[in-house]
Specification:
This protein has 82 residues and is mainly α. Helix content is 93%, strand content 0%. It has 3 helices and no strands. 4% of the residues are buried.
């Protein structure tokens, strides 16, 4: 856990800014998916459930993707500087 926190602290500012913006975008998408799933409870349209659930799964994938890619790009960039 300390290693991950150290990598966050040493991350390049541009990459960190991109990571934060990506996570904000994913947060908005997950809120939209939650809204769709709440609407499903009221309407009981099965298509709304599939759309909301698929959007939530995709958003969680994007969150993991942003974090992993930020670490990978930062590692590559720091290795090139050496």
């Amino acid at each position: 856990m300390k290693l991950i926190l150290q990598k966050f602290n040493k991350m390049d500012s541009k990459i960190y800014k991109l990571l934060i913006n990506g996570l904000k975008f994913c947060f908005i998408l997950i809120l939209f998916a939650t809204f769709i799933l709440i609407r499903y409870q009221e309407v009981h349209n099965l298509n709304m459930f599939y759309i909301g659930f698929s959007l939530a799964k995709s958003t969680l994938f994007f969150i993991v993707f942003f974090i992993i890619c930020a670490f990978a790009i930062d590692t590559i960039k720091s290795d090139i500087k050496k």
